[in-house]
Amino acid sequence: MYFYPPNFYNVKPISLFLIFMILFSCDDKQNTNNSQSKEMPKLSIEKKHTPLAEVNQDFTSEVEDWKQLKALNAFIKKFEKVSPREALTNALELKDLVKNLKDSIVPIDFDIPSFHARVNVLENETLRLADLTLISAITADDVNSQVDKTIIAASSVNSKINTILSKKRFEEEIDLDLDNIGIDSTKIDSISRKTIDINKQNKQVKKKYIPEI
User: Fold this and answer.
1) What does pTM read for this prediction?
2) Residue 24 — pLDDT band, cuts 50, 70, 90?
């Protein structure tokens, strides 16, 4: 018995097309699987990220009752040294904590547009990190990069808290008199104006009770 090889000249063009498509699909699938198998170990490797900038210890008493902020800062410190896989596992909880902070009752000193803008940036970064959990072919580098951006955004929120409280403390330690130094009160922000008004009231009270000689 003799074996005769198939005569491709007698094969219909559509059959050839299907054969080539199957071969191409198998090759492409194999390359994808190889790429994913190489990426899998990297997703489990811990990476040290930029440390979180925290609220200064001198100001902790000012925000100790702000439970949502404390919970967020405690949780996000887990991302300072984390594997991409673990970061993705915690991404959804981090997103919820940021939302809780945004929806919380903000202390009056921080209820200003510049602070809310920092929180909005942080929320956007956590949402992007959470979105990475939906990408099956995500790389370790992509996750690590987004973790860095998220920590930086959280640090920006804490830095803004430090700036606001530093300014408030400085103004409480000085005694300003707008009438004497000629400051335009309309150009002073709410925190400065509140501090100056309190200082002026205290000064007036002291003058009122000074005994005449």
Assistant:
1) 0.67
2) low
